[in-house]
Amino acid sequence: MVRRIFAIGFPLLILGGCVLNTGEWHPADRVKNISESYPLPDSLRNPSPFARSQMTLGQKLFFDPRLSADGSISCASCHKPQFAFGDSVALSQGRGGYSTQRNTPPLFNLFRQKRFFRDGGVARLSEVALSSMNEVHELNLPIDTLVRRLRTIPEYVRAFEQVYNRLPDPFTVTQALMRYQLSLLSASSRYDRFRYNNDTTALNPAAIRGMQLFFSNATHCRSCHNGPDFSDGLFHRNGMPELGRPDTGRARISMDWADYARFRTPSLRNLSFTAPYMHDGRYKTILEVLKHYNRALPNHITNNLTSDLPRTERILSSAELQDLAAFLEHLNDSIFVQTPANPNL
Hints:
By secondary structure, the chain is mostly helical.
């Protein structure tokens, strides 16, 4: 597993009425590693100069600890590039050493998501950052206070004027952060070579056996984990027993008791970089997750929390679980976690 990140500088150069990136790499360049056959909107496949400038500015904001009240953490403190813009702990540490309430979700291919956070509490990507800004144990710097701070920093005043022709304001700050997050594209795994480049050598025999299991009625994995990113984007109760403080899940947003303990289906991409797993980070390995489904779904109920997932036809053997894990490991995109990410601040 590769967990090394190459950091190079990305100073903002203000010339000729635009924001230029003086480095050889730009956030939009991630698309160069993705097959032409992989479904991407043209706005991301070929972003305009304006969109590229917004990405550069959003990148600077994303990694800047001045976006937190006490200057101690940034967005990237919990969304770390080497972990597919997720974290490596069950609960991330926010401002003042307080833990987040749920496991930090990784960030990639966000253009395909219709709702954000594990309970789908935010419907627009441009509004995602506002939640962390307002959370007292996270950034704890509401957008109006942040804007006033940015207007006192000459480098940001110049950058916003060049990109948006105006001073920092709530709209432009959230737009810049959104554009950077949209640049986080990941589809360069061995499976992608197999699926989109017709490379029959990309999967080893164990992964091929695991893929056949994954798409079979013996597992029903594809009933929730489908599409290019292996997620239906919907909310399910997966039969996990409650541990410690109960989490109402989607019901907190929908106000519908039927949604109790339902969480959005995560993507299965980059699992080797995003452990631990589940909304509370209870499982440390992919095999632990697979074993949970192997024993929970045939019974269809755990701790009085009925699963809404389809029943499996049978219990899988240890060898079959290993094959499934091998297939999932072929969804890892090591290029994505190694691309330069951290600008000079």
